[in-house]
Design a protein that fits this description.
Length: 570
């Protein structure tokens, strides 16, 4: 802390080389009348003992000051040193002068603080502790620094500042009550204004400056350039993709930036960070020429493809149609995830539009170019059920090559409602190749075709008019389905159950009943067999034909006999 030049009791400035002379003069001239109690005077150390320091101030007697008052200030004076002391009394009970070094120092401090307050000058002190509402600062006396005056911005943890030496202005002073209030913020504001003034004088577009990251937002970062803040927008941080500014910078970072634009009227400054290096798209045609095989990192997924970072600032798009030779990719997440390293082929480069088209499937040869050589219609082949859908099952024949087993080709006899009734995902099965469509990249498979069709010979096994036995497996509103053999069902229509009208089939039969029926219709093309209880009953009730002496068959009714006779004669 700076103080004015020390003065004597007469108010005259002391000069080097005159100190001893003046002390001698005061002593011999009886200068005691010039000193007043309660003043700070200058004296000369004449003796230093283990308990006290004797000081001659030019009075008729010397004054003794306890040695502790010097220890508190860290340094003992030497004989002959000139020091300032406080004159408490010209004589004590023993007739000795009473001096104090502590009080002299305190008066000097208060004088310096008062002068700093009057002139608006800063004082220096050390923060000693956290107190209610702020900090306690030792500036020679204990001063109070309110929390709102500690910094330009609120300080969340004041304890981190304990022990620091600071400069602050005296904003309130009551010497009588010993109160001193400081403001460090006022000093920082002045320093900022000085820096701002200097920065504005030298600031120009295109120059490179070092600044401190002051604040981070979703759209960018504010950089303190020295009394003035500039905005570094997120789009000017990197030539590559930046999700959030915090991915690159943190508050307090020291970074170099380029001044992109400066408006002197508004004081707004736009900054750039990526502009310190050249735009990688300027050389992209040489680095990533069409046909180049390279690796990249998946940085983003959309419904139509995946964006691949080839190098910082350069991204390309792999469209879903360029991801697989064999699979129909509905969404890129079916094949890749963000962060994956993938190998790609550069298909096209548009430097002006900053677009690169990439392909993943082109890394491997197209398996469909030779598909007809490896898979021929009629051949039997093994595969694994990869996926089930409402209309069928996709069977993996080899990595990247699937065939479709349609629901209609799963069974000759069963009406399959869903593929899960016949197959399970991951199941190994044998199928027959029905068709290969190289252009549309489709292979049709059949499961039922590896077994003979039981309906091909059903007319021979179940001729019309024959009696059959079966079990009722299902009831409907119009009749009952009867299983004649595994995979072959016949229909017993409600009209063929009885001669008398009935309301519902379950009035006549139940599921699980075993029935003997008459075949009244066979249609192998439609895969239908008509059965009848009613016609069977008629057949049982009719008398058996008899042989005539001539070998002719006779029936119950004469006209029938005549018809048979006529037929035989003919």
């Amino acid at each position: 802390m700076k103080t004015d030049e020390p003065k004597s009791s007469l108010g005259e400035p002391r000069k080097e080389g005159q100190a001893e002379e003046r002390m001698e003069d005061w002593f011999h001239e009886g200068a005691s009348s010039e000193f007043e109690e309660g003043e700070v005077v200058r004296g000369r150390v004449v003796q230093v003992t283990a308990t006290e320091v004797l000081v001659d101030v030019g009075y008729k007697s010397e004054g003794a000051i306890p040695i502790d008052e010097f220890h508190r200030h860290g340094k003992l004076p030497r004989v002959g040193d000139e020091i300032e002391v406080y004159l408490e009394a010209k004589e004590d009970s023993e007739g000795l002068i009473v001096l104090s070094k502590d009080k002299a120092d305190k008066i000097k401090v208060w004088d310096a603080i008062t002068q700093a307050h009057e002139k608006g000058l800063p004082v220096e002190g050390r923060i000693v502790e956290v107190v209610k509402g702020g900090l306690a600062v030792d500036v020679g006396v204990k001063a109070f620094l309110p929390g709102s005056q500690v910094d330009l911005r609120p300080v969340k943890n004041l304890a981190t500042m304990v022990g620091q030496t600071i400069r602050a202005k005296v904003i309130k002073l009551n010497r009588r009550r010993g109160n001193v209030v400081l403001s460090r913020r006022a000093v920082l504001e002045e320093e900022r204004e000085e820096k701002k003034k200097h920065t504005l004088e030298v600031l120009s577009e295109g120059m490179v400056l070092t600044g401190t990251v002051k604040n981070i937002t979703d759209y960018g970062a504010f950089i303190d350039l020295g009394g003035i803040d500039g905005l570094l927008h997120v789009t000017d941080m990197s030539w590559g993709r930046v999700g959030h500014p915090s991915e690159i910078f943190q508050v307090g970072d020291q970074i170099e930036v380029v001044v992109l634009h400066f408006d002197r009227e508004t004081g707004r400054v736009s900054l750039g960070y990526k502009q310190k290096s050249s735009d990688p798209w300027e050389r992209v045609e040489q680095t990533f020429a069409p046909g180049t095989k390279t690796r990249g990192r998946v940085v983003s997924l959309t419904n139509y493809g995946a964006f691949i970072e080839l190098e910082p600032g350069v991204e390309g798009l792999v469209h879903v149609s360029e991801m697989s030779w064999t699979r129909r990719v509905r969404h890129p997440s079916k094949l890749v995830n963000v962060g994956d390293e993938v190998e790609v082929i550069v298909l096209d480069v548009n430097r002006a539009a900053k677009r690169i088209s990439l392909g993943m499937k082109q890394v491997e040869p197209d398996p469909w170019t030779t598909i007809e050589e490896r898979y021929q219609p009629g051949a039997r082949i093994a595969g694994k059920v990869r996926n089930l859908t409402d209309f069928g099952a996709f069977i993996e024949l080899e990595p990247g090559v699937d065939g479709l087993l349609h629901i209609s080709d799963m069974s000759w006899t069963r009406s399959v409602g869903h593929p899960s009734e016949v197959l399970k995902k991951g199941q190994e099965i044998d199928t027959q190749i029905l068709n290969v469509d190289k252009e549309n990249k489709r292979i049709s498979l059949g499961l039922k075709q590896i077994q003979p069709d039981p309906w091909a010979t059903v007319a021979q096994r179940y001729p019309m008019g024959s009696r059959v036995t079966g079990k009722v497996v299902r009831l409907t509103d119009f009749g009952a389905f009867v299983e004649l053999e595994p995979g072959v069902d016949g229909l017993l229509h409600i009209s063929q159950m009885s001669n008398r009208p009935i309301g519902r089939p379950d009035e006549m039969v139940s599921v699980g009943d075993e029935l003997t029926l008459l075949v009244i219709r066979v249609d192998p093309n439609e895969r239908r067999i008509g059965l009848s209880l009613k016609e069977l009953a008629h057949a049982i009730e009719a008398p058996k034909p008899e042989e005539s002496p001539r070998g002719r068959r006779t029936g119950k009714r004469g006209k029938h006999r005549d018809e048979f006779d006529d037929d035989e004669e003919e």
